[in-house]
Each structure stands twice: as structure tokens, then as C-alpha cells.
Amino acid sequence: MTLFMIGLGLSDEKDISIKGKEAIERCKYIFLEDYTSQLDISKDILKKYYNKEIISADRNLVEKNSDNILNKAKENNVAFLVVGDVFSATTHTDLFLRAKEKNIEIKIIHNTSILTAVGQVGLELYKYGKTTSMPFFEKSFEPETPYKVIKSNLEHGLHTLILLDIKKKENRFMTINIALEQFKQIEKKRKERIITKDLRVVGCARIGNKNSVIKYGKVKDLINFNFGEPLHCLIIPGKLHFMEEEMLKLWS
After folding, report:
1. Domain limit, last residue, from 57, 87, 112
2. Bridge partners for 172 per DSSP
């Protein structure tokens, strides 16, 4: 029997590939990874489209109790559905390795992820440096790692993709506005003039969806812009080619 790890894409039930949908039809158990991202539609719509029962897989199930998924794949075909691409998050690599340890056959069916879909912005993908993430600040937890990553990438002329925090159980999704406010707090402490009010950034909302929004402008202008519903991400451009500059003008 086989564990199918299937990317769903970024938007709705129809973003799945034909190969992925055919694999789901062969599976007895369908798990939907339900904590690193989300589609723009509900699980019930997926259930109706696939005509299959779908089991929500939270972080605890995937990372601590993965045997509840993998043991089923020893005797049945099992689908593990991931929003975006299968290997966009390290937690999915861990599941892959655990399946290998159990000698379970695995088939990977890829799809678009935010890491490639940001190509729509017009910045050359091979000029992105290290990707980072911005978590919600909490009491005694205000990490400066994303600031340091941006600084390092800029020093090398590279763009930075910043993924914004998701707390699905709390129904909290970080907005570009919150992320920029938190960067202002870090800048106030570090005083290295990396995230200034005049720094030009790109804010992206719902990339891959028909109602996506892309805005390019200074921090002081975008910090109060309403980007709408999640999911959001932020890009700090590095050194620009003239063609990249032309593309960014479209989003000004």
C-alpha cells in the first residue's frame, strides 16, 4: 500500500492536479494537514469535490502521533494533503522520513507553493535569499531573526520573502500591517536603519487566488493599507534589475 503526499495548490478545490485527484480516488483514508496554511474554501467543499471523508491533521497528529497516519498506510492507500506544495514545510519532510523508516511506499505529487507563486510579483526567483517568517509577538517573545535575515540578504543584494504567522486554532492570521508594526519595534531597539519608514516593500495577499492583491510602496504608506482577508506575506526587494523595476511599477 502507498502513502500519497499530495500538494493542493494555494486557492481552492480545483487547484489540485489531475494526478493528485486520481490518487485521492484510490485512497481509503484522506488526511488534510491543517496548521501550516489554509485554502480559501472549507473542508466541506473539499469533501464534496473529492467525494471522500477528510480527516483534519493538526500539528500534534502529524508531528507527535504520526503512527496514526503511517500505520494505516501499511495496509491501505492513504492520502496526506498539503496546502501549497508537499515540501513547503519541514514538518512534511519529517513525515516522509518516518514513512521511509517503516518501509512504506511513498508517492509525491507536487503543486504550486508560495515560494514559487511569488514569481507573479516580478522579482526574479533566483535572486531571493533566505526565506524567513514573522511570528506574533508575545510577552517575553519578540524574536529579531527576521530582521537579521533581511539585513543579511540586503547586504548581498538579495530579495527576502517573509511568511507571516498563522494560529489557526485561535483564528489569528498575521496581516502585513501587524508585521510592519513589529518590524518597527525591532528597528526601534536595534537602530540599524534596515526597516525605515521609507524602505520600499511588497505586500501580497491571497497569492494564487483570483482576488489576490499586490502592493509596492514605502513602509509608511503600506502600514495602514487594507490588504483584506488572509493569507498575507511580505517581500523586501534587494538590488533590482531594470525589468524588475518595471514590474514593480505595476503594483505601485
Report:
1. 112
2. 167
